Amino acid sequence: MVTAGSVIVLEKGRSHKLVNLGAGIMEHLVIVSPPFDPDDVHEVKVDLISGFSYQTKNFPVGFPEPEDCFDGARILSYSLPPEFDLSIAFGWVRNDPACRKKPHYHKETREWVYVINGDVFLESWGMSFEAGSWLSITAGEEHGFTNLQPEALCLVAICSPKFSMEDVRYL
Predict the structure, then answer these.
(1) How far apart are CA 82 and CA 78, in angstroms?
(2) Does the bond joining 161 to the residue before it have cis omega, within 30 degrees of 0?
């Protein structure tokens, strides 16, 4: 069973199926490498009497404690095995001018940011983005997020190579 905060690695060719056992909506993030190809999906026949089982390479990451980030966000940061050389963090940005930090850039890290809910203003681009938007921020590109709503803005950020404060530069 997979629970909130779990990270599962499925090796190539491993049978799998995700089923929501709860009464609410199940949200999940899937990272695929190489990129997803629908022609590479194959149906697996299941013996309904005996069933079937499979093993996954499951590395324990636990459910991280929320922490305050350098830019005023509150984040859940997941540590992945070193061979991935990326980091994943879910963040909530409060609409509090006292928490805003000046725009920054990363010398080496590229970020992909998904807006889960709310509206965000990306200062360096002079544009706002709403829920469902993906932003790709290259290494060296200035960025700073401003929450445009009274409620918290919720984002997920994927960084490669993995996020490091030593890589953050202010203008």
Answers:
(1) 12
(2) yes
**What's the CATH number of domain 67-170, 3.20.20.210, 2.60.120.10, 3.40.50.10240, 3.30.1490.190?**
2.60.120.10
HEC per residue, 81-142? CHHHCCEEEEEEECCCHHHCCCCEEECCCEEEEEEEECEEEECCCCEEEECCCEEEECCCCC
pTM over 0.85? The answer is no
Of 115 and 94, which is predicted with more confidence? 115
**More confident site: 145 or 98:** 145
Element (H, E) at 68: strand 67-68
CA 81 – CA 39 distance, rounded (Å): 29
Phi, psi values for residue 50, rounded to 5°: -90, -20
**Spatial separation of the C-alpha atoms in residues 51 and 148, rounded to whole Å:** 50
Domain ranges of the chain: 67-170
Among candidate residues 8, 143, 7, the one with its CA nearest the CA of residue 77? 7
